[in-house]
Amino acid sequence: MASSLSSLEEDLKCVLCQNVYKTPVMLLCTHSFCKSCLETSWAERETKECPVCKKRSSIENPPVNRALKSACDSFIQEKSRRVSEEERGLLCPQHLLNMQLFCLHDEQLVCAECVTQQHNNHNFCSIGKAANERREELRGPLQELQANHAAVSSEKLTCLSVSQEIQSQFLHTQMQMKKEFEKLHKFLHEEEEARISALKKEMERKSQKMKEQMEQMDETLASLSKRIKLIEEYMNVRDSLFLKNLKDAEESAEYTVPDPELDSGALIDVAKHLGNLRYRVWEKMKDICPYYPVILDPNSAHSSLHLSVDLIKVNCRDTKQNLPNNPERFMMHPVILGSQGFSSGTHSWVVDVGESDNWTIGVVKESIKRKDEISVSPQDGFWTISREDGKFSFSTGYYGAQRVQRVRVQVDYHRGQVIFTNSESNTQLQAYSHSGEKMYPYFSTLSELPLKILPVKISWAAC
């Protein structure tokens, strides 16, 4: 019976406070919460949504779930009744007398007979005093367990949020992948049609030339046949008549036959059409498939930053996105990192900052703070340049009015160098020395005007 009551208690617990519901209210999605718990949850968020399924609520004051409230009240009454019965029925199993004292030596309840028979010379106190003291002793561990419970509950909600984001990312990424492959399929289909069309044109052109050449041969054959027949007629008459027409016969036999040999290149140039076909198509495909040396990592983006679908542009907006608080994400500042870090080699990329006046770009250590306030300085693992309120600045504190449209970031990890240049004029803006751990490209902006990573040309030398 006690286990069934415990099982019922689990069903009557609010997922936010993990206690039996107090004034339970129900949302349209059918999830219920304590009224005070829901109000606290909504006060911490910009949008009113279900803490479990994240569906937005259009109701400011959700109605009380009266059936659930009635069940909770009945449960509490029944639990209190059972506790009272247990307290009244505490009898000594050996002597069948009420146990009215607590033995401090043996840490157990005793009756009057127990005191005289088994607990001589022991110290005793009232049940109420012993219970209060033990309650106080348990209060600290209980609070620690409650804090752990709250922390795990919070982490569970984060996990739920991450799980929902995973599904959303899957659907979005799958859709974008399909679109990208559709572009590639369209390009390949058009390239296939163009190359087959070129092959067909060559076939038609060379077939037409063969046709014309064969027509000339037909004319030649007809002329030869006519002369052969005429000469044969001359040769089949009597001698006197043959000799009379000999001159005509000899003139008919004097005929220069045109050269019947085929011209060079009469056949289709198969090698031109098939030789390295896939490579040449891929080489042409590079024009529609730009390569970006840095791709932005959406999992690190602050909720105010919005990315382009190809993950190479970022800007800041007033509307914040509902994103999970995963370990990689920046929570205090509008920051996003590149998706790939590096701990060796040389690296370079160009950022088109355009007309934006509030941005910071560069590289940072992997270990920088992501959830707290940050100090953008080389001592804290930041090697950056910025533009803020019309001024161009560096981490060293130098300020100037210079404006640039495109900034190149160059990192030589082994030499410990980070160099910023104006990519349009190829003039150096700032240089730092660095040392240490893995580094990531760094971007921060407060502007709706986007920062854009520019593509680079990739060339392959033929072997």
Helix fraction, binned, reads 25-40%
Largest beta-sheet details: 7 strands, antiparallel
Radius of gyration: 45 Å
Quantity of strands, as a count: 18
The coarse silhouette is elongated
Strand content: 15-25%
Question: Unreliable segments (pLDDT under 50, ≥5 consecutive)?
Answer: none
N-to-C series of helices and strands = HEEHHEEHEHHHHHEEEEEEEEEEEEE
Structural class of the helices, strands and pairings? Answer: alpha+beta
Distance between the termini: 82 Å
Order of strands, main sheet, comes to 6-7-18-9-14-15-16
Arithmetic mean of pLDDT: 86
Tally of helical segments? 9
Secondary structure blueprint with pairings:
Elements: H1 2-11, E1 24-26, E2 32-34, H2 35-43, H3 66-88, E3 101-103, E4 108-110, H4 112-117, E5 124-126, H5 127-235, H6 239-244, H7 246-253, H8 270-274, H9 277-285, E6 305-307, E7 313-316, E8 335-337, E9 346-352, E10 358-365, E11 382-388, E12 391-394, E13 399-400, E14 406-412, E15 417-422, E16 427-433, E17 439-445, E18 451-453
List keywords for this structure.
single chain; 6-stranded antiparallel β-sheet; 7-stranded antiparallel β-sheet; 18 strands; 463 residues; alpha+beta
Question: In brief, what are we looking at here?
Answer:
With 463 residues, this protein is of the alpha+beta class. It has helices spanning 2-11, 35-43, 66-88, 112-117, 127-235, 239-244, 246-253, 270-274, 277-285; strands spanning 24-26, 32-34, 101-103, 108-110, 124-126, 305-307, 313-316, 335-337, 346-352, 358-365, 382-388, 391-394, 399-400, 406-412, 417-422, 427-433, 439-445, 451-453. Helix 5 (127-235) packs antiparallel against helix 7 (246-253).
